[in-house]
Design goal:
The structure holds 2 protein chains of 2 kinds.
Chain A: H1 4-52, E1 54-56, E2 62-64, E3 81-87, E4 92-95, E5 114-120, E6 126-137, E7 143-153, H2 155-205, H3 218-264, H4 270-294, E8 302-304, H5 306-319, E9 326-330, E10 336-338, H6 341-357, E11 362-368, E12 373-378, H7 388-393, H8 407-418, E13 422-427, E14 433-438
Chain B: E1 2-6, H1 10-22, E2 26-30, H2 33-42, E3 47-51, H3 59-68, E4 75-79, H4 84-93, E5 97-100, H5 105-119, E6 126-128, E7 132-135, E8 140-143, E9 146-148, H6 152-163, H7 171-178, H8 187-201, E10 210-213, E11 217-220, H9 231-236
Parallel strand pairs in B: 1-2, 1-3, 3-4, 4-5
Antiparallel strand pairs in B: 6-7, 7-8, 8-9, 10-11
Classes of the chains: A alpha+beta, B alpha/beta.
């Protein structure tokens, strides 16, 4: 069940089948029920009609006036409608002219009781019977108990019902199949954009196209534009890495050739060698930093700020244990930031170590979560009395990269900016340095 | 002092071994993580220098295993990965300090000395005792402000006793921490060195810096003077 189409088709088939079966059963049941009621009413009418045609003769015997019978079929032989009167000893008092050879035995029942049932004729089909036990009452209080029985050969109505059922099922099944087919077509049509996207992705893999078409249904436009952004960033990243690698190789080649030449000489000047290795080292550092900064940042997952801060603080406490550096953290456990974890560590590491390096003993980290701001205060000597914005610019230019001149802060600031946040150096209220990190 | 060096880059390992030998360390060395762990578990190591990217068993897992098995000597991590997340991972695994490649050998030695001092409870590069001080950076010993001229081996014996000041160190332990595994070590030679050291430090027999506890070993018994300042140390880092 991998494909969406087969899932949907299987699901709707199941639902439709259940639906059709339930509808058919309930419609058929209610029609049968109505037919049964109608049949009872009709037979009851006949019984009353027969009773109406019944009289008593001079010998106090029951007599049926055949001219007054409610249905002419009672006077036609084997018409399918039969009637009889039976006294309570089972003696037949009267039977209709239509009566064939066999009639079901009437049973003795309390007076006023109706019996409506269905019987199987041994040779023919089903019969319906209505029987009423009643009594003829004389003026002097005497009464003759007897039973009226009307039997209807059910053939025609049952045939109609059967035909109705067949038509019902056939229609419903046909419409179910039709609906399924229609739904399949609709699905095919609706899912077509997905197949198109699949083909386009394959085309991208083969290098035949460089992005997905944006002309897709509304529901998919987020997907395609997201994928396109990803592709674009991937391509940019690739290009940037290649450039950076070229730059790095280029910047290493010069000191490398100097070293190579020196190694071929008998007496190498150690100071030149050291200078060249220093150049190579700073070149690598600069390029790695540039690589970190340049990577486009899409789709960074949200991470909880507290854990990285705690881990960073614990590590720095360990490193600067001999200097007695302690951290005080009061952070909201719900402070989430959308940043790559390694980058977040880089920002925190640079800012917090800066505080440790410049002689702080007590470093406080707190937050203003409603402003998405992290505040780092220390009790060190504070930032030098230059304009604080200048602090951020130092170390950004490659040629001014000397250790301990706020380079860590500048790097952290650039990382924050890459995510749309910012870093603000300030003076802490108690005299030391304050750094505020504003997260996007 | 006995140092364990675990570094798979052979040239760098040889440089490190030479550096540590020059500074009077006994050395155990290997380029393999598993072997590094074995040595760390079975040799009387004072400090370990561990590279993170190792064959066999990587440096982080080596350090974690060590700490899990109650080996608490300082560990300095060498790594080419200089992102903070990697450093935090290393420190959380149980490392005490890290140095990113490429590094200056002097800086490695300064960090090593700082770690060893901190293990002995010294925050300063100068170990100050009553009437005697040992400057671990200059490898210089002074008694009553007079510089005492010691040989390299004599200095190593004294420096080791000083980092363990107050504790009794058996001859076997002292030898373990001073000599490589394959060196011929003679306890009698050690006795001679101790005697010479005493004479140099205590020419008028008023100081008695090194006590002999018969059958148990030696102890540096001078009272420690801890100077609160750690400026020097901070600058060293």
């Amino acid at each position: 069940m991998k494909s969406i189409t087969s899932r949907l088709v299987a699901g709707t088939s199941l639902v439709l089948t259940v639906f059709v079966v339930l509808i058919a059963i309930s419609v058929s049941w209610s029609v049968h029920q109505r037919a049964q009621t109608a049949r009872f009413d009709r037979l009851q009418g006949l019984v009353y009609g027969i009773l109406g045609a019944t009289d008593i003769d001079e010998h106090s015997r029951l007599r049926v006036n055949t001219q007054a019978l409610p249905d002419p079929r009672l006077n036609q032989a084997t018409s399918g409608l039969y009637a009889e009167l039976v006294d309570h000893s089972g003696q037949r008092l009267w039977q209709s002219a239509s009566t064939a050879s066999w009639l079901p035995e009437s049973s003795r029942r309390p007076i006023g009781d109706w019996l409506f049932d269905t019987l199987e004729h041994p040779e023919k089909s089903t019969l319906h019977r209505l029987q009423l036990s009643t009594a003829w009452e004389f003026d002097d209080g005497r009464e003759i108990p007897f039973t009226v029985q009307v039997v209807d050969d059910a053939d025609s109505l049952d045939r109609q019902l059967k035909r109705f059922d067949q038509t019902l099922w056939a229609t419903l099944l046909a419409s179910a199949v039709g609906l399924l087919a229609l739904q399949f077509l609709v699905l095919r049509k609706s899912l077509e954009p997905l197949h198109v996207i699949g083909d386009e992705v394959a085309g991208i893999e083969r290098g035949e196209r460089d992005k997905l078409s944006e002309d897709v249904p509304q529901e998919l436009s987020a997907l395609t534009s997201g994928l396109n952004a990803l592709l674009r960033s991937e391509r940019e990243r690739h290009a940037q890495h290649r450039h950076l690698l070229d730059d790095l190789a280029h910047s290493l080649k010069t000191p490398l050739s100097v070293l190579q030449n020196l190694a071929e000489q008998d007496q190498a000047d150690r100071s030149i060698m050291l200078e060249q290795t220093r150049l190579m080292k700073s070149s690598i550092e600069r390029h790695v930093q540039r690589a970190n900064l340049r990577s486009p940042r899409y789709l960074a997952p949200a991470i909880n700020l507290r854990l990285p801060v705690e881990r960073m603080a614990a590590s720095l406490e360990k490193l600067h244990e001999h200097a007695g550096v302690t951290f005080q953290l009061s952070l909201d456990p719900e402070f989430m930031v959308r940043m790559d974890e390694a980058d977040l560590f880089e920002v925190l590491g640079n800012v917090l170590e800066n505080a440790c390096k410049y002689g702080a003993r007590r470093i406080t980290v707190s937050d203003r979560i409603e402003q998405r701001c992290l505040i780092i205060d220390d009790d060190g000597p504070g930032f030098p009395d230059v304009r604080l914005e200048q602090l951020m610019q130092r170390g950004v230019r490659a040629d001014s990269q000397t250790a301990g001149s706020g380079m860590g802060l500048a790097a952290a600031q650039q990382l924050m900016a890459a995510y749309g946040g910012r870093l603000e150096p300030a003076h802490a209220p108690e005299g030391g340095a304050r750094v505020r990190l504003w997260f996007p | 002092m006995r140092a364990l060096i675990v570094e798979d880059e052979a040239v760098l390992r040889q440089q490190l071994v030479a550096l540590f030998r020059d500074h009077g360390f006994a050395i155990d060395e290997t380029g393999d993580g598993e072997e590094g762990l074995y040595l760390a578990m079975h040799m009387p190591i004072d400090i370990a220098i561990v590279d993170l990217g190792l064959p066999g068993r990587d440096g982080l897992s080596l350090i974690q295993s060590l700490r899990k098995q109650d080996r608490h000597f300082p560990v300095l991590v060498l790594t080419a990965r200089d992102r903070w997340q990697d450093k935090v991972d290393g420190l959380e695994a149980g490392a005490d300090d890290y140095l990113t490649k490429p590094f200056h050998l002097e800086e490695l030695m300064a960090r090593t000395r700082a770690l060893l001092r901190r293990t002995g409870g010294w925050s300063d590069s100068v170990m100050q005792f009553e009437r005697m001080s040992i400057d671990t950076r200059a490898q210089q010993v002074r008694v009553d402000d007079q510089v005492i001229d010691l040989t390299a081996f004599e200095y190593r014996v004294l420096a080791y006793l000083a980092t363990q000041a107050g504790s009794v160190i058996s001859k076997a332990t002292l030898l373990d921490h001073l000599y490589d595994e394959d060196t011929d070590r003679d306890p009698n030679v050690l006795e001679v060195f101790i005697r010479r050291l005493r004479q140099k430090l205590d020419s008028d027999k008023s100081l008695n810096p090194i006590e002999t506890l018969r059958g148990r070993g030696y102890r540096l018994a001078l009272p420690r003077i801890q100077n609160g300042s750690s400026q020097v140390d901070a600058a060293e880092r």
